[in-house]
Design a protein that fits this description.
Elements lengths: L9 H8 L4 H42 L10 H14 L11 H24 L23 H17 L7 H6 L7 H31 L17 H37 L4 H4 L1 E6 L3 E6 H20 L3 H29 L6 H32 L10
Antiparallel strand pairs: 1-2
Helix pairs in contact: 2-3, 2-8, 2-10, 2-11, 3-10, 4-7, 4-8, 5-11, 5-12, 11-12
Length: 391
């Protein structure tokens, strides 16, 4: 269970762990926090996509599956942003410890619904289950060019990498664990169980989704309208996604808030605007400490993520790009560098060489995933007018 401390200084911990030089320290911190900001953008896109899917599902149910039902996701992004402005004013998560439980229940709910619907669809008779080679290369209506297929494969790697974005807040989570037993032992066991479960579940859903829809599998099973019925169940699954991401946005944003506010507070120790709090009583929450600086800066943060999401509301492409950006440096390179430094692994030893090979392969995965996602965004922009296009 993730219970946030009031002033968790991830940056300070990182500096202690990564004593491999100031340049690498700066690069790691920069990558860390830009990745967290980008993840907040991705969550805004994803949440609005699910909200639009609920609206379109109701439209299809009322007017038929072949109805256009084009809906803009801009109002839903703005709505999501308004809620985040409100939740961002909560100084920490001591008072809402149930956040992790709600997120876990929501995640399990919509994932199980998608898996169940996929299994049901896969066992229906009279539809294609796809081919081993995937979408055919050619000039037919359902074919793609060789280059397009390569780009889409690259983008898919980024989507897979995004599934393991928890590495961006790994030390933050560890910092909230109680001892004994030692934090690192608890975290190692939790990470092993979590990664194994996630990998198994996601691989199962991916395989079932392809068995259900074949070469025409949508990028998102619950919002791509491979399923139209039962519409109430699909709506419920998408509502679970939205609830999950409302909390997840804060989980990934709070480290940025804490570090920046600590840094600016030390630079302006006598500023009333920065340090003075005003207590307000909020229904169902209790006493809430409101700080004018926190109100202005956190609102500006949410505004920036919302505007960027509205400019680039491309679910798979944005998710792939974020996954590519954070995968190699945060999941592989810097953890490997820390491990080598702490264990005093000798240069050019067998273990050192294999760790470098792992890092190099991961770097190539991030590069090709980023290229595929950028190409996807470029293609999307050809048919997209900012703030006007409907889906």
């Amino acid at each position: 269970m993730i219970i946030w401390h009031s002033h968790v200084l991830f940056f300070a911990q990182l500096m202690m762990m990564l004593s491999t030089g100031p340049t690498q320290q700066w690069l790691c911190a920069f990558t860390q926090y830009t990745n967290l900001w980008a993840t907040a953008v991705g969550y805004t896109v994803t949440a609005s996509t699910s909200m639009v899917a609920i609206k379109r599902s109701d439209c299809f149910h009322s007017n038929g599956d072949n109805s256009p039902c084009h809906i803009s996701n801009n109002p839903y992004m703005i709505t999501f942003g308004v809620f985040q402005i409100i939740f961002s004013q909560i100084p920490d998560f001591h008072r809402i410890w149930w956040l992790s439980i709600v997120a876990a229940v929501m995640s399990l709910s919509y994932s199980s619904i998608g898996l169940g619907l996929g299994i049901g669809k896969a066992f229906e008779s009279g539809h294609s289950h796809g081919t081993i080679g995937g979408i055919s290369i050619g000039h037919g209506p359902d074919d793609v060019s060789r280059a397009t297929k390569v780009w889409q494969v690259f983008q898919a790697l980024g989507n897979i990498a995004f599934a393991y974005s928890f590495s961006a807040i790994l030390i933050e989570i560890q910092d909230t664990l109680k001892t004994p037993p030692p934090e690192n032992k608890t975290m190692k066991r939790a990470t092993l169980i979590g990664v194994s479960t996630t990998t198994f579940f996601y691989m199962t859903i991916g395989c079932v989704g392809y068995a259900a829809f074949g070469n025409n599998a949508p990028g998102n099973l619950l919002t791509g309208f491979g399923f139209y019925n039962p519409y109430w169940l699909i709506n419920f699954a998408n509502a679970c996604i939205v609830v999950h991401l409302v909390g997840a946005y804060q989980v990934f944003s709070q480290p940025i808030f804490a570090v920046f506010e600590s840094w600016i507070g030390k630079r302006r120790p006598h500023s009333r605007f920065i340090h003075n709090d005003h207590v307000m009583n909020v229904p169902f929450y209790g006493a809430l400490s409101v700080n004018l600086f926190r109100l202005v800066w956190r609102t500006a943060f949410v505004f920036s993520t919302t505007i960027f999401a509205m400019l680039f509301p491309f679910f798979n492409d944005i998710v792939g790009l974020i996954g590519a950006y954070g995968f190699w440096p945060l999941t592989v390179y810097f953890p490997v560098a820390m491990y080598i430094h702490q264990q005093n692994i000798r240069r050019w030893s067998t273990k050192w060489v294999w760790l470098q090979i792992l890092s190099l392969i991961s770097l190539l995965v991030s590069i090709v995933a980023a290229l595929g996602s950028v190409e996807g965004i470029y293609q999307d922009l050809k048919h997209y007018t900012p703030f006007k296009t409907k889906y």
